[in-house]
Amino acid sequence: MRHFIFGYGSLICQQSRAITAPTLQEAIAEPVIIVLIERIWAARVPNRNPIAGKCRDHIRGWTPMGIRRRHGASCNGVLIHVDEEELARFDVREEGYKRHSIDLIDVYPHRESTDSSSSAADAPATNAVRCPECNIVFENAHKKRTNNNNLDESDIDIAVWVYIQNEQAAPNPFYPITQSYVDIIMRGCLSVSKEFARKFLETTHGWWNDGDLDGSSRNTHHTWVDDRQSPMYARADSDFSMEHGDAIDRLIEEHHPHALKKRVISM
């Protein structure tokens, strides 16, 4: 069985993937689009240990990325070819999520707007695909969508997986979005292209949640914290965040200025 993981959050970042599976350090993750999936800030991770800092006494955990099934939606990310041992490692990493299968018919190669074939979204994969194993996925996905009876026999041995959160809840001051986590995702997106990063920002929902004030006033309510100085995310890269934070913020401001304006400093 050929196993593939669809990474739509921190798994987009090669450095983050390699922390879990060092054997993937040099592996190619192929940019991909999955339809009928919408990315949203909606998972929950509780704190196992108290978080130090005068501005963090109230924080009970944080909100990482999640997804939901939705007609008409699409989500960019990367396709990661893994073996059984690597898959088991990611199962452990993705605590609070359950692994679900994705139908091949919903898998498309990502195409940049400068790609001459970008107008043919359902065209077979081209030589631009750098991961040979992923090319097999794209080719068989195309055949399946076009009702081609000449499917490769390997199709029955392909499994594309995605991790879906067990609990869905919007971020709030007690479970905020953390900037250190956003930076890791953006690092992965920018390693593909700035266009890919913008697509991530455009298709990710829930950056700001007006509800669930939980006793805080409208002026003090927040759902997103800037923790770059003292990261809460376990796989954060402080050096990267401090060097590229301003550029990342400028990109975010293009798409989510209201939410960015309400982000608060967390030390």
Which helices and strands, and how do they pair?
Blueprint: E1 2-7, H1 14-20, E2 30-41, E3 45-46, E4 61-62, E5 65-82, H2 84-93, E6 97-102, E7 107-109, H3 132-145, E8 158-165, E9 177-178, H4 179-192, H5 194-202, E10 204-205, E11 224-226, H6 238-255, H7 257-261, E12 264-265
Parallel strand pairs: 1-8, 2-10, 9-11, 11-12
Antiparallel strand pairs: 1-5, 2-5, 2-7, 3-4, 6-8
- In sequence order, what are the helices and strands, one letter per element? EHEEEEHEEHEEHHEEHHE
Into which percentage range does the β-strand content fall?
15-25%
Distance between the termini: 46 Å
Total count of helical runs of at least 4 residues = 7
Low-confidence stretches: 116-120
The whole-angstrom Rg is 19 Å
Task: Kindly state the percentage of residues in helix.
Answer: 25-40%
Mean pLDDT: 88
The biggest beta sheet is recorded as: 7 strands, mixed
The number of E-state strands comes to 12
- Find the structural class using helix and strand composition: alpha/beta
Overall, the morphology is globular
